[in-house]
Amino acid sequence: MNDKEFFDFCYDQYKTELADADLLYQRAGILLTGLAVLGGLIAALIRLEYVVDTFHRLDIGAYYICAAASVLSLTCSAGFLVAVLIPRRYSRIAPVKAWKEWRAVYGSILTSDDVTAEERNREALAIETHTLLLDNIAKAQSENAPQNQARMKHFTSSVKWTSIAVVCMVLLALARLAIYVRGV
Q: Which of 34, 54, 64, 158 could form a disulfide linkage to 80, CB 3.0–4.6 angstroms apart?
């Protein structure tokens, strides 16, 4: 792998980490919408009129246990989603303007009278810029990757808790159907 291929590889990794962060925000938006819909369904399914008979009938007790599990699961999912959505500072390479200014300053040093002819080599400017840029890309990527991994872990936990909430809601609906069939 030559220097250009290595640079391209590092830059692709850097871009991938930033793209992953953007994609995670998009997925989180979809999950947030799903949580809102599930929260509305739970609110529609839960009836407080059966509370009096909670300890007298098994189906009503199961109904409220499923309701509590649904609410708890949805709350856990929302908590993990908040952890995903908390803004984080991502490392970025300097803007193009800063790189142009750096090259101008470094180039003026190379062309000053205090510099030998060998040091004036324009190739030295290109090599130094390439090296500095590569170092900045590597540093930024290595700082961004753990943040994305942590955010993805929270997102995965949120999806798991949402799945548990859906299962609890199905059981809640079945318990409510049993109560309806038996009558209160």
A: 158
Owning domain of residue 30: 3-182
What pLDDT sits at residue 155? 94
Helix axes 3-45, 58-85, angle to 10 degrees: 150
Residue 51 in contact with residue 170, Cβ under 8 Å?
Answer: no
Contact between residue 50 and residue 184 where contact means Cβ atoms under 8 Å apart: yes
Query: What domain count does the chain have?
Result: 1
Model confidence, pTM: 0.73
Asked whether the beta carbons of 135 and 58 are under 8 A apart, the reply is no
